[in-house]
Design goal:
7 strands; Alpha/beta hydrolase; seven-stranded mixed β-sheet; Rossmann fold; alpha/beta; globular; 44% helix
């Protein structure tokens, strides 16, 4: 299926952005090599430096001119030719791209940047009573919203042809399941604030009185939910009185070792001659960097250099009183004593982080042990579609 108009336009913009970024990187590396090519001091060749700088400026100028011209051409396209529905492959590709550089896409107003939206399995919802009633004629007073993780979309809840947990929640327990789609490259706190506002609009405009609200988050989605609840609490959102339970699947409550390792590698490479200009890892999104420690609030990242090494200084965010929390973790180990599970966790998140454990008592999440479960012999993404995980979630919802 051919790409839609917005995907083509956004991809073209990103291509020109990439050319500009590569050119700037090459220029930076050129200067670095020119200054440190030999171990003894040399006189700076100003003529060579001026010529090189002029060449790079020319390349950037031509690239910018072409970008503006192509973008203007897209702007002249008739409205009738801009319609089209994204294919599943497009949705997945755009979601992956948003996880990697979604903050850049938003900052440059790129059409590939995903705007936050609530959806059914089939369509995007407009949060107005008549349109909600038309989209969901059998709306229940019990709502459950599923929140995906980094670089994913609502399609990620359906894998390998297996049924999604939303079907069981709807058919067996009478819930109306909805999905959140969002730009996972933005700061978690930015998404949390917006989601808190969106849930208020959802509850205010739902076609029948809302009796209960439940939230399920996978990976980063669990952090977005906890951030959302905190901002709803600070802003006095009414929907908090309707919140009954929160389920977190493989959520790095205290950070992801993969992002921590990536940051440590980047710091080591900064000491290698000529390597710093090519540290493309430092361009990873704000959302990814938030996963280093599990940042939930604006204060956790504002005023700090996200690429500088610093200890975990985030504010402690306790669980809400009166809400039932349930945490599920996966582990590659065959049992709790298997060293493979302690070493690698589920490949992305360690089990102790996923169930809220922490050496610092102030950061440890106060959740009942019987509300936590570790699924052995499974990886991070098995939590999305494993039948035993689904049954555990159904059991938690049935309590």
């Amino acid at each position: 299926m051919p790409a839609t108009f917005d995907t083509t336009r956004g991809g073209t913009r990103l291509l020109f952005d990439s050319i500009a970024g590569i050119t700037t990187t090459v220029e930076s590396m050129h200067r670095k090599i020119a200054r440190t090519a030999v171990p003894w001091p040399v006189a700076e060749d100003r003529a060579h430096g001026a010529i090189a700088a002029a060449v790079y400026r020319l390349i950037l100028g031509v690239n910018d001119g072409l970008r503006q011209g192509v973008d203007w051409t897209f702007g002249q396209t008739p409205e009738a030719l801009r319609s089209g529905r994204e294919s599943a492959a497009e949705v997945r590709a755009i979601a992956a791209l948003n996880g990697v550089c979604g903050d850049h896409l938003e900052a440059t107003d790129n059409p590939l940047g995903t705007d936050m939206q609530l959806r059914t399995a089939q369509q995007r919802l407009v949060l107005e009573p008549p349109l909600l009633r038309e989209a969901i004629p059998e709306a229940s007073g019990h709502l459950v919203v599923l929140v995906h993780g980094l670089s994913m979309s609502e399609l990620g809840w359906r894998r390998r042809g297996r049924p999604c947990i939303d079907e069981q929640l709807g058919n067996d327990l009478g819930y109306t399941p909805l999905f959140l789609r969002y730009n996972s490259g933005r700061h978690i706190s930015t998404n949390g604030r917006e989601f808190a506002s969106m849930l208020q609009a959802l509850c205010d405009n739902w076609p029948v009185p809302v009796e209960s609200l439940s939230l399920i988050g996978h990976s980063m989605g669990g952090l977005v939910i906890r951030s959302t609840c905190r901002y709803a609490q600070l802003d006095g959102r009414d929907w908090l009185h309707l919140l009954r339970r929160v389920v977190c699947l493989g959520t790095p409550h205290h950070g992801s070792p993969l992002e921590q390792a990536g940051h440590a590698f980047e710091q080591a490479m900064r000491r290698v001659p000529y390597a710093e200009p090519m540290l493309f890892g430092k361009l990873r999104s704000a959302g990814i960097k938030d996963l280093r420690h599990g940042n939930l609030l604006d204060e956790d990242w504002q005023g700090h250099d996200p690429d500088a090494p610093r200890p975990d200084s985030r504010q402690a965010v306790p669980l809400l009183n009166g809400v039932d929390y349930y945490f599920a973790a996966a582990s590659l180990g065959r049992n709790q004593f298997d060293p493979l599970g302690h070493l690698l966790g589920d490949l992305l998140v360690r089990a102790d982080s996923a169930v809220g454990l922490h050496r610092d008592e102030l950061r440890r999440l106060d959740i009942r042990p019987e509300h936590c479960r570790v699924f052995h012999g499974r990886n991070h993404f098995d939590l999305l579609d494993d039948p035993q995980v689904h049954q555990q979630v159904i059991d938690w919802f049935s309590r």
